[in-house]
């Protein structure tokens, strides 16, 4: 998932006067390139940049540095069988790349609900919400999500990405101002672009910078203002400073929207999200979430006041003109909420696991930035060094994702480690040993493996 910071730094990759020139391989070619170099490449042939990128990608694959999109051959629990395309065979990995934070994707009652509803309603209704795509399960899901988030109303979208696109572009127009965190998810960036609004970017979690922007915007007397931030930042694991955001929004007459994609089911006593975590339920105008992570399904949602949600139903193009999620998925999501509410020990176990692995990694000397969630970033900086560490970790049987541009800004590469409640104490100890061993082998940590 790309960030606001990565998007804001996009520039043409070609040198002045050179168009469509593929970089040469070798120490001065591929080794000093990143994915950013292929975002723009002026050439009469639109596909010229694709050929340049193909050469870069093949070089990375040859060095066993890229392994994105490898297919699973099993359920995704604390372990998973994955076809290792670099090895040409199936392997069982210790899984630390899953957003299945509470293990609900494998819960028997969730799976049973999906199967039963699919048998009753079929694979899909093949329509949008307004044209034959709604049944009572969708209505019930919206009711349950609103109750879980303790908000009056809810609208369900086909995806979390489309929820951000739809909500932002429907509510914010060219005469309004969007005030966004530098490390927001790319779906927020694209929603801002689609809206045509003035976009002001404040430094990551820097509330003084946010106030400076709000103060100037208020003095200019422009249209409305919407502050948008991730609840949990997806590549960094830290949490937005919601109390200060809410305070500043009140002072400068702005609205607040929080993307709880990685906070729903994780933060708060009940797992309701960022607002509950800070004791600010009802103080956030719009809470957005995805249903493909903790909730173990697919789709996105927005909760808020009745009138706002009703407006979104008619003015969010990504809701009006897109097919709805299948009934089977809706049933599984309802079952997931049931499990979250009836089995609170899953959330407690998740946080025990987070603390255990975080402490082990910090004690070993890794830089985890300011993570306060189930996402533990092992920050490296240099892209190639991060990929080499990822390769060493994978070779030892642990699967986590190496994140480079555009998932993070250039020079901020990292390994993204996702903890779930399904990890056992033995899993966590083995993972820590693998990370330390691999880091010593690659020179990220001092010592010998």
Strand tally, please? 13
CATH architecture of the largest domain: 3-Layer(aba) Sandwich
- How many separate domains make up the residues? 2
Helix content: 25-40%
The CATH class of the largest domain is Alpha Beta
Biggest sheet character: 7 strands, mixed
Summed up, the helix count is 15
The overall pLDDT average reads 91
Rg, rounded, reads: 22 Å
Q: How do the SSEs run, as a string of H and E?
A: HHEEHHEHEHEHEHEHEEHHHHEHEEEH
Proportion of residues in extended strands: 5-15%
Low-confidence stretches: 8-28
Shape: globular
Q: What structural class should be given to the helix and strand makeup? A: alpha/beta
Give a quick set of tags describing it:
449 residues; Aspartate Aminotransferase, domain 1; globular; 2 domains; seven-stranded mixed beta sheet; Aspartate Aminotransferase, domain 2; alpha/beta; 15% strand; 40% helix
Describe it for me?
- The chain has 449 residues and is an alpha/beta fold.
- The chain has 2 domains: 79-95 and 344-442, Aspartate Aminotransferase, domain 1, CATH 3.90.1150.10; 107-342, Type I PLP-dependent aspartate aminotransferase-like (Major domain) (Aspartate Aminotransferase, domain 2, 3-Layer(aba) Sandwich).
- It has helices at 4-8, 48-62, 108-121, 136-148, 160-171, 186-195, 207-220, 242-251, 274-277, 306-315, 317-320, 327-342, 345-364, 383-395, 425-442, and strands spanning 79-84, 89-95, 153-157, 177-181, 198-202, 225-230, 255-259, 286-290, 300-304, 375-381, 398-399, 401-403, 413-418.
- Helix 9 links the parallel strand 7 (255-259) and strand 8.
């Amino acid at each position: 998932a790309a960030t606001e910071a990565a998007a804001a730094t996009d520039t043409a990759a070609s040198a002045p006067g050179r168009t469509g020139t593929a970089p040469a391989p070798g120490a001065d070619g591929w080794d000093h390139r990143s994915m950013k170099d292929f975002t723009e490449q002026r050439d009469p042939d639109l596909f010229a940049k694709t050929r340049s990128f193909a050469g870069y990608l093949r070089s990375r694959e040859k060095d066993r540095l890229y392994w994105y999109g490898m297919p699973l051959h099993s359920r995704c629990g604390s372990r998973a069988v994955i076809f290792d395309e670099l090895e040409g065979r199936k392997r069982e990995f210790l899984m630390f790349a899953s957003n299945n934070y509470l293990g609900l994707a494998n819960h028997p009652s969730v799976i049973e609900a999906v199967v039963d509803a699919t048998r009753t309603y079929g694979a899909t209704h093949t329509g949008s919400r307004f044209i034959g795509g709604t049944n009572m399960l969708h209505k019930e899901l919206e009711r349950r999500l609103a109750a879980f988030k303790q908000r009056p109303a809810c609208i369900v979208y086909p995806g979390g990405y489309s929820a951000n696109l739809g909500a932002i572009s429907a509510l914010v127009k060219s005469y309004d101002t969007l005030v966004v965190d530098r490390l927001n998810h790319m779906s927020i960036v694209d929603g801002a672009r689609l809206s045509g609004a003035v976009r002001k970017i404040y430094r990551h979690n820097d509330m003084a910078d946010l106030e400076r922007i709000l103060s100037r915007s208020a003095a200019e007397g422009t249209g409305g203002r919407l502050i948008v931030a991730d609840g949990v930042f997806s590549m960094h694991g830290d949490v937005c400073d919601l109390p200060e955001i809410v305070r500043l929004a009140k002072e400068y007459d702005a609205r607040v929207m929080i993307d709880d994609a990685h906070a729903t089911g994780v933060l708060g006593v009940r797992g309701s999200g960022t607002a509950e975590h800070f004791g600010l339920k009802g103080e956030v105008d719009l809470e957005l979430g995805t249903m493909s992570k903790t909730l173990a399904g697919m789709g996105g949602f927005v909760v808020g006041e009745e009138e706002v949600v009703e407006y979104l139903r008619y003015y969010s193009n990504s809701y009006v003109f897109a097919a709805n999620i299948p009934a089977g998925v809706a049933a599984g999501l309802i079952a997931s909420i049931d499990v979250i509410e009836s089995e609170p020990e899953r959330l407690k176990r998740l946080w025990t696991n987070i603390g255990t692995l975080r402490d082990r990694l910090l004690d070993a000397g890794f830089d985890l930035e300011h993570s306060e969630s189930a996402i533990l970033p092992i920050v490296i900086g240099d892209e190639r060094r991060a990929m080499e560490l990822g390769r060493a970790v994978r070779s030892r049987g642990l699967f986590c994702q190496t994140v480079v541009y555009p998932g993070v800004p250039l020079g901020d590469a990292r390994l993204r480690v996702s903890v779930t409640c399904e990890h056992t104490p033995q899993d966590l100890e083995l993972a820590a040993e693998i990370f330390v061993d691999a880091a010593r082998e690659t020179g990220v940590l001092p010592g010998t493996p």
